[in-house]
Specification:
This protein is of the alpha/beta class and 1075 residues long. It folds into six domains: 134 residues, no CATH class; 219 residues, P-loop containing nucleotide triphosphate hydrolases (Rossmann fold, 3-Layer(aba) Sandwich); 169 residues, Rossmann fold (3-Layer(aba) Sandwich); 58 residues, no CATH class; 104 residues, no CATH class; 179 residues, no CATH class. 35% of the residues lie in helices and 19% in strands. It contains 35 helices and 36 strands. A hairpin with a 4-residue loop joins strand 26 and strand 27. Helix 26 packs across helix 28. The longest helix has 25 residues. Pfam families: CDT1, DEAD, Helicase_C, MZB, WHD_HRQ1. One of its GO terms (molecular function) is ATP binding. Keywords: ATP-binding, Helicase, Hydrolase, Nucleotide-binding.
């Protein structure tokens, strides 16, 4: 049994704790029985404490499984004192908590957490003569709105569910015999904990002093009480210990159980300096010195600036925080010095990043003699209409994005003509963000811009792009801007200094160390515990979460833990940051971070890009990010100013995370995938040709910009005048750019409105996309915002808003839902001998039909489960209630393709004990892994709670691999995959054959984009499906029979034929078409 002896360095002064010695004594005694039966005599203090524990045990054993009983400390205390015949002191309970931290929950909760118990009590019947433990309603009205509870967390299993994939179990009702057994088990845990403590205590220490010292950290502090002036302090971040020492401290903590499974250290690197030739003017040199304290340049900065001077286009691919912004800021100053009419355009993927860089450039220009009159402005969707004309006419530098260039600047080229004629430099930051279908749109926008500039006489426009380290920088820049390779200078040798950096791969320990089959401790609990530990030592840390809900749950956990510890000094310096927050909230948090006020940030990948949020010492990644590139980008956020730093990957309990736990070197040695941009998509090209023709008529000479497919599209889709010029087709007039959404169709949003307690006054706290709203805002559900919980009172689907009120409830909610992806009409067929692939219309149907209320223990066991449904569970995963909803479904139509699994192949899998759902799911991901534009194609992912349920379900899915275009993006990307489907099947099958992993990985059958975290999967099954579709001979005797731990009903049935459109032609893979 573990004990929570907090490290004195985290909370002030105190004696040393026997944490390591305790573990040494445990290792000498390999089983619990030997420890529990120790003959070590107990001091009277522990004998007395045991009596207190047994009295509490007796009371709590009775109430442990009864939802109608409130375990508030005043109620439990009264009953315990009746047994002890003397007062129960809080300090004694705190000692018990110090001995048994995982068993005892002793904390303040919001009084609203008890409301559910009161409602249940009102509709339940209580036996006569049963003791009354419930809290009267009047007791809720305490001054600060919080009540102190005392509970045992036994992780009771209850009645075992027959559905192995089902994540929840109802809490058990204990029989008298079971209650007696539970009491005895707890008493044995106490005895074991005391014996371990006595065995581990050095002769120079006193066990009583140790336990009393440790208990001070477990005396609950009401969250609303003003923080006391205590000795608890943390070092200034500027005076923290070296990271190597902090890692060693981590290993000395009681809660450290060999979680670090891999450590990689990169030594500090000195900066490489070079001289600019020709040198900068005195004014620019002085401006750099006074505003940035820059007096020298790194080698990569010099190489890039001098390449611009030689009229080259430049791409800089170096590490995060290597000073890339200087590379385009210096040339801008040089252009303005030589020509006051010169213009520059800086493009950023996010508004936050643009605002951050705008402030830096304004400071630099303001410090440069002779340039103080230069105006800089932001030109984006938030820019008021009345200011736009002045920006066009009077600003020399604008910060914008490709959306504005596409929809506002180029369509109004006639009013932007002066600006474009004098445009000297276009800088694009974070170029790696532009790939896939979005990258295709951006590529055509840059071509339209180059064409417009050339037409008005500007042939000397230079392009600079900055990016994180990518595998194909020259090719990517060539594709995005339409340049010749010889025109591009690649700068990839990083001359910036870097501090020592430690990478840790952190695998949460087993819940039951003696049982290797048991589940692991919550990754969220581990990550937040590590974050608190680091902040207490003055380490500035950011915790990256993959999804918004987990970000909020992590913040709530930090609030709870630091509040219970009374560490309001740290809590007030921790903020969450994610998409969905208001612009004002995001700017405020960014300002607090940049100014050094924050010690901790909990964020989604919204902060993965280079927004300057000040110096960070450590990064914690909760679960493997979506790609190796994202992993390195997030890790690079720490140590941005050359000091030593730490990056920790805390593994989720999912197959991909497990793969990198077992193969950690791939995190550092694996080459990121090439960034792919498709310029052969006729649908995308036509859209931009319609726009380009509206900006100025197109001639055949424009193939230099738009490629060889242009002539065919112009002839068939645009309007040709007698003079030979092509004009926009009338159906797209007057504004063809409005027919194109370069980021995909804008989703509808729901407005979340907070209701005041008094019922008077409401205000908007968030806007949420409909694709998220379905799963997060439903009447009675729990919604989270900035670490606070709200209960949804009303949802209006006609006006798209939800009203919520704040309440700290003792449960979370998880939607009960299903998603069907169904083929509806066949438009094309491709035949490849053994099977056929079909392309056509696909319907998506999403239905949320209810939700579970799930009891939460945020102090100990929150864990992230499925990325798609944003669920967080406690270890015992106990359902408090199951609620039905009558909400409208979400339906939409898209296009895609599908391949039916033959009946014989389906029968073979059932014969061999292979779950067809696992096989099909893995085969789908295996195919998409071989498609370069897979980020814009989706598939139907299989959910474990549906595929592994033992009880029969009427919902059956066809034996079919199905893929579809991402909703709202259009672009026909799935059609390109359909055109090469036979090749993709061959590549996927070959990838599985050559991959040496045992159960699948991202190189073969798993996807980082899987909405069900790859929990339903079979590498063997995927191989059989793919080989069967390709017509390879399968020897049933060579296929091993798979063991099944439980008999499951069939969820996959033979696929039925899909209606064909008229005159559908069958295309052969070796021919263009055949009748």
């Amino acid at each position: 049994m573990k004990r929570a002896f907090d490290d004195p360095k985290a909370s002030g002064s105190g004696p040393s704790k026997p944490t390591k010695k305790l573990r040494q004594s445990q290792s000498k005694s390999n089983n619990k029985a030997s420890i529990a039966s120790s003959e070590t005599p107990w001091p009277d203090h522990f004998t007395s404490l045991f009596k207190v524990f047994k009295a509490i045990n007796t009371v709590l054993a009775f109430v442990s499984s009864r939802k109608q009983i409130a375990t508030t400390f005043p109620v439990i205390r009264a009953s315990v004192e009746g047994l002890l015949k003397h007062p129960l002191e809080i300090s004694r309970v705190a000692e018990l908590k110090a001995l048994l931290p995982d068993l005892i929950k002793f904390t303040y909760i919001d009084k609203n957490e008890l409301l559910i118990n009161e409602k249940i009590l009102n509709r339940s019947t209580r036996r006569d003569n049963s003791p009354e433990f419930s809290l009267p309603a009047s007791s809720y009205d305490d001054a600060d709105g919080h009540v102190l509870i005392l509970e045992f967390v036994d992780h009771l299993k209850g009645k075992k569910t027959r559905n192995s994939g089902f994540q929840y179990t109802a809490p058990p009702t204990l029989t008298p015999a079971a209650m007696k057994k539970l009491v005895e088990k707890r008493n044995q845990q106490f005895e074991q904990a005391v014996n371990e403590l006595l065995l581990a205590t050095p002769e120079t220490e006193n066990a009583i002093d140790l336990i009393q010292e440790a208990s001070r950290e477990h005396i609950p502090v009401s969250p609303n009480c003003p923080p006391k002036k205590e000795d608890k302090t943390f070092p200034s971040p500027d005076n923290r210990l070296p990271m190597d020492d902090i890692i060693e401290e981590v290993k000395e903590q009681e809660w450290y159980i060999d979680q670090i499974v891999h450590r990689r250290t990169f030594d500090a690197k000195n900066g490489q300096i070079a001289q600019l030739d020709p040198s900068l003017s005195e004014a620019i040199s002085e401006a750099l010195k006074s505003s940035r304290e820059i007096t020298t340049f790194y080698t990569h900065q010099v190489a890039a600036i001098q390449a611009i001077h030689r009229e080259k286009h430049v791409i800089v691919s170096t590490s995060t925080a290597s000073g890339k912004s200087i590379i385009y800021q210096v040339p801008i100053l040089q252009f303005l010095e030589r020509d006051s009419s010169a213009k520059a355009m800086l493009v950023y993927p996010t508004k936050a990043l643009a605002q951050d860089q705008k402030a830096a450039l304004e400071q630099l220009i303001g410090a440069c003699a002779g340039l103080s009159h230069i105006k800089v402005a932001t030109y984006d969707g938030d820019t008021p209409q009345e200011l736009r004309a002045d920006i066009r006419s009077n600003c020399s530098v604008i910060f914008t994005n490709f959306d504005m260039i596409h929809a506002s600047i180029l369509p109004n080229e006639h009013v932007w003509r002066t600006f474009l004629k004098n445009l000297k430099l276009l800088a694009v930051d974070e170029l790696h963000c532009y790939s896939g279908l979005f990258g295709s749109h951006v590529s055509y926008i840059t071509r339209r811009l180059r064409r417009a500039c050339t037409a008005i006489g500007n042939r000397r426009l230079r392009f600079i792009s900055c990016t994180a380290t990518i595998s194909n920088p020259r090719q990517h820049m060539q594709t995005i801007f339409g340049l010749e390779p010889s025109e591009i200078e690649v700068v990839s040798e990083d001359g910036a200094p870097s501090g020592r950096k430690d990478f840790l791969v952190w695998n949460p320990p087993l819940v039951l160390p003696e049982d290797p089959r048991s589940s692991r401790v919550s990754s969220l609990s581990e990550a937040t515990q590590l974050m608190r530990f680091l902040m207490k030592r003055g380490v500035r840390v950011i915790l990256f979460c993959k999804i918004r809900k987990i970000c909020e749950l992590a913040m709530k956990t930090i609030i709870t833990e630091l509040g219970n510890e009374g560490r309001h000094d740290i809590l007030e310096r921790v903020k969450p940051y994610r998409g969905g927050y208001s612009r004002e909230d995001r700017r405020r948090i960014e300002h607090e971070a940049f100014s050094g006020n924050l010690l901790g940030i909990i964020a989604t990948n919204a902060l993965e890009l280079g927004v300057d949020i000040g110096i960070l010492d450590a990064v914690i990644m909760l679960g493997f990010p979506m790609s190796i590139a994202s992993f390195r980008q997030q890790a690079g956020r720490a140590g941005r100013r050359a000091q030593d730093s730490l990056a920790v990957l805390v593994a989720d309990p999912f197959p991909i995370d497990t793969y990198y736990v077992d193969n950690p070197t791939e995190l550092f040695e694996q080459v990121p995938h090439h960034l792919i941009v498709d310029l052969d998509n006729k649908m995308t090209l036509e859209s931009h040709l319609q726009c380009a023709a509206h900006e100025m008529p197109i001639s055949l000479e424009d193939k230099a910009y738009f490629g060889p497919l242009m002539a065919e599209i112009c002839e068939s889709r645009l309007k040709r005048y007698a003079d030979g010029w092509y004009h926009t087709h009338p159906k797209f007039l007057p504004f063809p750019s409005r027919f194109i959404s370069i980021r995909g169709a804008q989703e509808e949003t729901y407005t979340v409105i907070k209701m005041s307690k008094s019922g008077q006054g409401e205000f908007i706290i968030e806007e949420i996309e409909i694709s998220r709203a379905m799963f997060e805002i439903y009447e009675g559900g729990v919604f989270m915002h900035q670490g606070l919980t709200y209960v949804v009172k009303e949802v209006n689907h006609d006006r798209n808003f939800a009203k919520v009120f704040q309440a700290e409830v003792n449960y979370i909610t998880s939607p009960r839902d299903f998603t069907d992806v169904d083929a509806k009409q066949t438009l094309r067929i491709r035949d490849f001998t053994a099977s056929r692939a079909f392309y056509g219309k696909i319907d998506l149907y999403v239905k949320v039909f209810g939700f579970f209320k799930i009891r939460s223990w945020p102090t100990y066991s929150l864990s992230s489960i499925l990325l798609t449904f944003l669920i967080c569970f406690c270890r015992n995963k106990a359902i408090i209630d199951s609620v039905d909803l009558d909400t409208p479904p979400w339906e939409c139509e898209t296009t895609g393709f599908w391949i039916d699994v033959p009946k014989a192949l389906l029968a073979l899998m059932y014969t061999k004990g292979i779950n067809p759902a696992e096989a099909i799911h893995s085969a789908q991901h295996a195919l998409l892994n071989q498609f370069a534009l897979s980020e814009d194609v989706k598939t139907e992912c299989k959910a474990p709670e549906k595929e592994y349920r033992v009880t029969e379900s009427s919902r059956k899915r066809p034996a079919r691999l199905i893929f579809y275009d991402a909703i709202g993006k259009g672009g026909g990307v799935s059609a390109k995959a359909f055109d090469i489907v036979h090749e993709l099947l061959q590549k996927a099958s070959a990838a599985i054959d050559r991959c040496e992993c045992e159960r699948g990985c991202t190189n073969c059958t798993q996807s980082t984009m899987c909405r069900e975290a790859n929990e339903v999967g079979s590498k063997l099954g995927a191989s059989i499906v793919l080989k069967g579709l390709l017509g390879h001979e399968l020897d049933p005797d060579a296929i091993p029979l798979q063991e099944q731990t439980v008999s499951l009903p069939q969820t996959i049935v033979e696929a039925s034929a899909v209606r064909r459109a008229n005159d559908v032609r069958i295309e052969n893979v070796t021919q263009n078409a055949s009748t």
